[in-house]
Design goal:
Layout (H helix, E strand, L loop, with lengths): L17 H18 L3 E2 L4 E2 L5 E8 L2 E11 L10 H8 L8 E9 L2 E9 L20 H13 L12 H9 L12 E4 L22 E4 L2 H8 L5 H10 L1 H5 L1 H16 L8 H15 L4 H8 L5
Antiparallel strand pairs: 1-3, 2-3, 3-4, 4-6, 5-6, 7-8
Helix pairs in contact: 4-8, 5-6, 5-8, 8-9, 9-10
Length: 302
């Protein structure tokens, strides 16, 4: 269930506009292909709440991926507008798609950005952000992930992935009196989950929102999205215990738990109860007032 009355809302397209919006995205995607001189060769895949659409393309003999995103013309897109291209330019050495060319276009109430990037010919570890089955992951896979997460904090950037005010607001829903005193802000992918990671090569996809976040944020995100697959959650916890048990890491877990539940991504998902229960564990560890959050935890049993 989506807990719309107790967490900050996430903007999305209205349900009754969904079909028209998809047709509109598909039309602009075809135009982007013409402008960027590529041929559409796959079936379009729509992103979260139809905010974006992507398709496999042929770029003069090279396999590519064309991703189109639409945003309200009068809104502030922030870091999300050029995240993939800046990651491609600044995060050299990481296993991520490289942006070759881009195109922007505006009409009426929306503006669009299309990024043509290299195609990663590997399946994601999970079709959903939160795991339900245990993927086969080698020690090499885990080492590559560790290399990515160790590299990011050393990057110099002023991009802000997690806004401090929104961070505090979302955590405050659990306990308004809980101090949200982040000790260290470092670069992060900031939306790390199992649909963003490929196997067997451990490529990391969708860097549109990367930037500064509390230390341990990526480890916290991966752990929360692993809770419905306990063997994987145990592996993540064993490898990233330092980050998860840090003050910033625990605050990050509360933020991510709220974001997962608020988005409705866990509707009828096995992870929903686990995420609620884990939030209670973290709140107790941080010394939160049980009276402030017990009624929220009871939602998990409804």
């Amino acid at each position: 269930m989506k807990h719309t009355r107790w967490l900050p809302s996430e903007d999305h397209w209205r349900d009754d506009d969904a079909d028209d919006h998809r047709r509109r995205l598909a039309g602009v995607l075809r135009r982007a292909a013409i402008e960027l001189r590529v041929e559409l060769v796959g079936e379009p895949r729509y992103g979260w709440r139809d905010r974006s659409v992507g398709v496999r393309v042929d770029d003069d003999g090279r396999d590519g991926w064309l991703r189109l995103v639409g945003e309200p013309a009068d809104g502030d897109v922030g870091v999300f507008w050029d995240g993939n291209v800046t990651a491609s330019q600044q995060l050299n050495g990481l296993r991520l798609p490289r942006v070759w060319r881009s195109w922007e276009y505006a009409e009426r109430d929306l503006r669009f950005r299309a990024d043509l990037m290299s195609y990663v010919d590997e399946p994601a570890c999970s079709p959903t952000a939160a795991l339900t089955v245990v993927p086969a992951l080698t020690e090499t896979w885990w080492a590559r992930l560790a290399g990515t997460l160790a590299f990011l904090p050393r990057v110099d950037t002023d991009r802000v992935a997690v806004d401090a005010e929104r961070f505090a607001s979302r955590i405050g829903i659990w306990d308004a009196a809980l101090p949200v005193d982040v000790q260290r802000w470092v670069p992060a992918h900031a939306d790390l989950h199992w649909a963003q990671l490929t196997t067997p090569g451990c490529w990391v996809l969708d860097w549109e929102g990367w930037g500064l976040a509390p230390a341990g944020f990526d480890a916290a995100s991966l752990y929360l999205h692993s809770l419905a697959a306990p063997p994987v959650a145990q592996l993540v916890r064993a490898r990233y215990a330092t980050e998860l048990d840090s003050h910033d890491g625990m605050l990050s877990q509360l933020y991510i738990a709220g974001r997962m539940l608020d988005r409705g991504d866990l509707d009828d998902h096995p992870a929903e109860t686990a995420v609620f229960a884990h939030a209670g564990t973290v709140l107790r560890a941080l010394g939160a007032d049980p009276g402030s959050y017990q009624h929220l935890l009871r939602l998990a049993t409804r």
